[in-house]
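In response to a reviewer's request, we include the raw inputs and outputs for one of the modeled complexes. The two entities were modeled together in a single run.
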Amino acid sequence: MTTAKRDTYTPETLLSVAVRVFNERGYDGTSMEHLSKAAGISKSSIYHHVSGKEELLRRAVSRALDGLFGILDEDHARVGRAADRLEYVVRRMVEVLIAELPYVTLLLRVRGNTGTERWALERRREFDHQVAALLSAAAADGDVRGDVEVRLATRLVFGMINSIVEWYRPDGRGVSEREVADAVVRLVFSGLRRD
Amino acid sequence: MTTAKRDTYTPETLLSVAVRVFNERGYDGTSMEHLSKAAGISKSSIYHHVSGKEELLRRAVSRALDGLFGILDEDHARVGRAADRLEYVVRRMVEVLIAELPYVTLLLRVRGNTGTERWALERRREFDHQVAALLSAAAADGDVRGDVEVRLATRLVFGMINSIVEWYRPDGRGVSEREVADAVVRLVFSGLRRD
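The model returned the following structure tokens for the whole complex.
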């Protein structure tokens, strides 16, 4: 028999439990009962902090989205040649993905069944568009190859970066965040082949 | 009220219905009842063709795996400089992924809850190792950059290729298979930046 923990959660620490459960069971497959069990507090204690699981989802994906959109406001993303700004954004995307791994993982798995999920998908598309615009500008400058269509290139680069959530584990035993970011920047901008 | 269709399925056509349902609901979330409804035939008619849903899964992921491993037996994958063989394999991976889209999609979503899923994961790892070995050989020849660790580079390249299942729709309105394959080969080997 488990005894309920005294509720010492803040909205922030409760969020990290919820995100773990959402990533394990899927958002649709998670009930307030599952969250209550995982947190070790009653459902009414959870309702003391948040209005329900959709609010937890909104807070979680907001954290991932704020991290990603925050990149675009940084100086190196705003000043300089488009190709250099794009390189900076690609590196920072890897860093944010790793720093906010469970939150970005959840964001990438959102499907669109609820209002919050549709809002998150819309925000993701907006971020993609802003990065695609940077790639277009770099192509217009002649710094980026013109023989791969911008939207297709953006999709493939995002595909490479987003796939990191499938295997990266921040346990200190594998490759470091820095090695992953360096590798992505090298492959995306210069490719595998040695000149 | 729906009337049951006369069972005109072959194991092959039944498989394509099953794969669609597995991809929509997830393999774990699919029951024989769901398959029976989607196919419009009774469960006992399905059992006439296959022993159950795990056999359908095995046939489906085998089709994807046979397609992928088949690439490694093709002449251009076996003869020539490692870097050229690698480039050929990358292009063919995109082609097989698109030609067998629902089957490869299912393979990439396999999680490891059943014996068949664990076997599929093991075969995927074996394929990854063979491509990584080709990349190692190309690096040893000096044709491929040495400053990205081989396993990490393999993961990132597979990440880019596998992400195609998330957005590619073979409806003739978007980019063609050829454009996608060209784009992947260009990005993977030469990167975005114009020299």
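As requested, we also summarize the result in words. The interface with chain B takes residues 83, 86, 135, 138, 142-149, 152-153, 155-164, 166-167, 175, 179-180, 182-184, 186-195 of chain A (CB under 8 Å). The first helix of chain A runs from residue 11 to 25.
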